[in-house]
């Protein structure tokens, strides 16, 4: 497969691995404090890396609306990047986004013609060309731009699956216009129905039979076509009164499809502004929320996000937007009963996203609210980027608490997320109330509901002695592996198999460790942070 090349590509390729892990600084809770939704202010590359140990492989749907690189300036972010810089900016973010996607998840990226075709090749490289699903064309305007010879009527929405073989989409719910097409001219007790032609293109010997209508009229397939099914299937449909021969029974057959059977229709790649909204609608939504003087310059209509989220997710699934902008993705996901994470680096994370999402919780009735019967509720927590987990010399930052380091170590060792907690790792400024690790075998009552046993993976158990996890067990609050500490671990958190124990140091000799099936790793020297 051919690859895209540009100045500084080598730097872009290594960027995702080079970004240091950061803590997330808790700032405030809004609405239901137990809700799992996160609003994060800060550089999205660093924020994505910070989420990786907790959410890798957990996100069902990603939508991003990155800067289009249109060579024009916008009030809330700079959309004027030289082409190679734009590609360098996008590449590592796409790499981390792919790592966060669930195996059956999908990513949707809005873009226009300025970079859209380069982005397609770039995403082929990151996600694999075989995982490309479709280029959705969204009709963003209602009429041509009179200032241009040919006005751009659409944006692209590039859709990729994490794994095309495991990916599927829901159906699009029927619109009122589509529902109105269902009639009941024969008073069928099963209710309104619509019909489709009972022929198919081509010539198939077992589908070329002669059939007779209810009025006794005989038909053969039209030239160049055959019947849609074999004769036995046709007779079954007739017996079930699913074939329509017209009011007088003399017309060519059509197959009935009942309204009650329709979950919706299959999506296609052309999305009109009547279906999913347009730029003017999006502007009006933002103006109603913030006023025309403070509105965001390039919003997307809520109906557009509703279509994507409805196709790609079900209630309770996790949606991520790392270019949150004015907060539309999070607002729509919230109203639709999805969990969400939104990342925005600019000041409008505070001036636009936060107040908009507070209004959602309060039950605002703009956008899709009436369509989904939104009445308010739920909540989210607001974070900023905190300190790096590891300092420049590879040591652990003093603000790092047990759960944060546990998540990173589990991720380093297994490549999997440690857990999906109600809150990510805190730095100073808030209580650490992450949920207990669901992999605990027993115990788990120490240090606020967590234990030194991180979990088991491929028959190996992983333990962490850090931050006083064993309370006042000496020496150094249980951070040193001694005979007494080992006896306590074996009594409270037994494991019949290999064990890896991280700690400050060990006072057990190599022979004793080998006999106990223990690999000891010293903090911070045995932690590969970058």
Gist of the model:
The protein has 530 residues and is an alpha/beta fold. Helices cover 27% and strands 22% of the residues. The chain is globular.
**Tally of separate helices:** 14
What is the percent of helical residues? 25-40%
Main sheet makeup: 10 strands, mixed
Main CATH class of the largest domain: Alpha Beta
CATH superfamily of the largest domain: Vaccinia Virus protein VP39
* Shape label: globular
The total number of structural domains is 3
CATH topology of the largest domain: Rossmann fold
- How many DSSP-defined strands? 23
The CATH architecture of the largest domain would be 3-Layer(aba) Sandwich
Strand order across the biggest sheet?
1-17-2-16-15-3-4-6-5-14
Unreliable spans = 420-424, 426-448
Mean pLDDT: 87
Structural class: alpha/beta
Account of the protein in words:
With 530 residues, this protein is of the alpha/beta class. It has 3 domains: 9-13 and 25-168 and 266-386, 3-Layer(aba) Sandwich (Rossmann fold); 176-261, no CATH class; 389-522, no CATH class. The protein contains 14 helices and 23 strands. The chain has helices spanning 9-18, 44-55, 83-100, 116-127, 176-179, 231-239, 273-276, 279-290, 302-312, 328-335, 348-362, 402-414, 483-492, 510-515, and strands at residues 22-31, 38-41, 59-64, 101-111, 132-139, 154-161, 193-197, 199-201, 211-212, 218-219, 225-227, 243-244, 254-258, 270-271, 318-321, 339-344, 379-388, 453-457, 460-464, 480-481, 499-503, 505-506, 518-522. Strand 9 and strand 10 form a beta hairpin. Helix 2 (44-55) runs parallel beside helix 3 (83-100) and helix 10 packs parallel to helix 11 (348-362). The protein is globular, with a radius of gyration of 29 Å.
């Amino acid at each position: 497969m051919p690859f895209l090349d540009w100045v500084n590509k080598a730097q872009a390729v290594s960027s995702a691995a080079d970004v240091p892990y950061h803590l997330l600084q808790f700032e405030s809770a809004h609405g239901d404090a137990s809700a799992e939704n996160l609003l994060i202010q800060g550089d999205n590359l660093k924020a994505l890396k910070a989420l990786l140990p907790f959410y890798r492989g957990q996100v069902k749907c990603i939508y991003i609306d990155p800067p289009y690189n249109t060579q024009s300036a916008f009030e809330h972010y700079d959309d004027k990047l030289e082409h190679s810089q734009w590609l360098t900016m996008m590449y590592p973010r796409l790499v981390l986004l792919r790592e966060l996607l669930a195996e059956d998840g999908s990513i949707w990226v809005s873009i226009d013609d300025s970079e859209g075709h380069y982005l397609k090749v770039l995403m082929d490289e990151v996600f694999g060309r075989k995982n490309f699903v479709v280029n959705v064309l969204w009709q963003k305007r209602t009429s041509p731009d009179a200032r241009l010879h040919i006005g751009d009527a659409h944006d692209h929405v590039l859709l990729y699956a994490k794994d095309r073989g495991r990916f599927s989409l829901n159906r699009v719910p029927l619109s009122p216009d589509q529902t109105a097409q269902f009639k009941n001219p024969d008073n069928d007790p099963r209710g309104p129905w619509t019909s489709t032609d009972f022929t198919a293109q081509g010539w198939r010997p077992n589908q070329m039979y002669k059939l007779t209508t209810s009025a006794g009229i005989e038909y053969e397939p039209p030239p160049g076509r055959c019947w849609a099914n074999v004769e036995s299937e046709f007779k079954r449909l007739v017996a079930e009164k699913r074939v329509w021969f017209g009011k007088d029974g003399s017309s060519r057959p059509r197959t009935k499809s009942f309204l009650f059977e329709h979950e919706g229709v299959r999506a296609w790649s052309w999305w009109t502004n009547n279906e999913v909204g347009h730029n003017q609608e999006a502007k009006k939504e933002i103006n109603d929320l913030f006023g025309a003087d403070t509105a965001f310059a390039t919003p997307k209509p809520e109906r557009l996000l509703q279509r994507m989220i409805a196709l790609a997710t079900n209630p309770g699934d996790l949606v991520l937007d790392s270019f949150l902008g004015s907060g539309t993705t999070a607002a729509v996901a919230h109203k639709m009963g999805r969990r969400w994470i939104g990342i925005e680096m600019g000041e409008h994370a505070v001036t636009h996203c936060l107040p908009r999402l507070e209004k959602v919780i309060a039950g605002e009735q703009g956008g899709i609210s009436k369509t989904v019967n939104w009445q308010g509720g739920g909540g989210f927590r607001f974070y900023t980027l905190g300190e790096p987990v590891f300092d420049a010399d590879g040591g652990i930052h003093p603000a790092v608490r047990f759960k944060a380091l546990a998540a990173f170590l589990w991720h380093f060792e297994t490549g999997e997320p440690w857990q999906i907690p109600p809150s990510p790792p805190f730095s100073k400024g808030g209580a650490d109330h992450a949920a207990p690790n669901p992999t605990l075998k027993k115990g788990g009552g120490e240090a606020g509901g967590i234990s030194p046993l991180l979990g088991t993976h491929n028959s190996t158990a992983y333990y962490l002695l850090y931050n006083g996890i064993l309370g006042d067990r000496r020496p150094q609050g249980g951070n040193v592996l001694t005979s007494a500490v080992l006896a306590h671990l074996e009594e409270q958190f037994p494991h019949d198999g290999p064990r890896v124990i991280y700690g400050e140091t060990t006072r057990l000799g190599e022979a004793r460790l080998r006999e106990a099936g223990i690999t000891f790793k010293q903090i911070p020297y045995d932690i590969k942070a970058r």
